[in-house]
Design a protein that fits this description.
- The protein has one domain: MetI-like fold (Orthogonal Bundle).
- Helices cover 73% and strands 0% of the residues.
- The chain has 14 helices and no strands.
- Helix 1 (7-38) crosses helix 14, helix 4 (71-102) crosses helix 13 and helix 9 (168-176) packs across helix 10.
- The radius of gyration is 25 Å and the shape is flat.
């Protein structure tokens, strides 16, 4: 028997639909604005006032300007190499550190946790790090960027919280069967923490993909620079005022659309990867936030 819905219930449902639609629009509009602006004519975009709901005089000029630089593909390759290598190191170091911190019987666990947490609030600064890289002979090497991003205390704490949630009975059972710590970590603890591990991978991936500051300090050779640093240089060049006979107002128009095109180019790979990890994101983040 179908129950007749009251007027108040209908009104509440419509209000919810309207509110959620508004929130969705507010969330998606900045992304759509960037995409539409990147395909627009620079002069008309500067003259446009109000909400941008579609490209103005649709064209690919901004993307042609970005990709005409032969270094873009080189930057993509450099970034992929740096991110892939750093990600492997991140997962190994973070997993080992989180496993140690999650073992209640580990000697000195609280002391190590204290000093790791201390690094989240205090650091030696850029100058000591720079001289350390020089003394190690890593300057102008990808390893200078990779090793300085080897592990995150924040991500370690999240993964450690997930490891703590693994039942002690499973670990003890594995130990009775003769399993060592490496076996327990890779065959018991990590498989049961896949959701949180996916979140950690996403955190590391996005952070390394957007990283440019360390490369600007440690990499002198332009052929070794990552995509983000190259895109930053293109944006600076497009904003330089007059260039090769182009008037300042025209240069400003080009700079406006190039700015949005660079955002799309830099964000597109991560946006393609995120949907595959999104199903783990809510679950993994919740585990890391609630338990401890």
């Amino acid at each position: 028997m179908k129950i007749k819905e009251s007027f108040g219930s209908k009104l509440f449902n419509w209000f919810n639909v309207l509110l959620m639609s508004l929130i969705t629009f507010v969330t998606l509009y900045p992304i759509l604005h960037v995409i539409f602006a990147s395909f627009s004519d620079g002069n008309k975009l500067l003259a446009h006032i109000g909400i941008l709901l579609w490209p103005i005089d649709f064209n690919f000029d901004a993307y042609v300007y970005v990709f005409k630089d032969a270094m873009i593909l080189r930057g993509y390759m450099n970034t992929i190499i740096i991110v892939a290598t750093t990600l492997v190191i991140n997962i190994i170091l973070t997993s080992f550190a989180a496993y140690f911190l999650s073992r209640k019987q580990a000697y000195g666990r609280n002391v190590v946790t204290f000093f790791m947490m201390l690094t989240m609030y205090f650091s030696g600064g850029i100058v000591p790090l720079y001289f350390t890289i020089l003394d190690l002979g890593l300057y102008n090497s990808w390893w200078a960027v990779i090793l300085t991003s080897g592990i995150s205390t924040y991500n370690t704490i999240i993964l450690r919280t997930a490891f703590v949630s693994v039942p002690d009975a499973l670990v003890e059972s594995a130990q009775i069967d003769g399993a060592g710590h490496m076996t327990i970590l890779f065959k018991v603890v990590l498989p049961l923490s896949k959701a949180t591990l996916a979140v950690i991978i996403l955190y590391y991936l996005v952070g390394h993909w957007n990283e440019w500051f360390a490369a600007s300090i440690f990499l002198r050779d332009k052929l070794k620079r990552p995509l983000q640093l190259m895109l930053r240089e293109i944006l600076i060049e497009s904003s330089a005022g007059e260039e090769a006979g182009v008037q300042a107002d025209q240069a400003q128009a080009v700079s406006e659309t190039v700015k949005y095109a660079i955002i799309v180019v830099a964000s597109f790979p991560v946006m393609c990867i995120y949907p595959f990890l999104q199903k783990y994101f809510a679950k993994g983040a919740m585990i890391g936030a609630v338990k401890g």
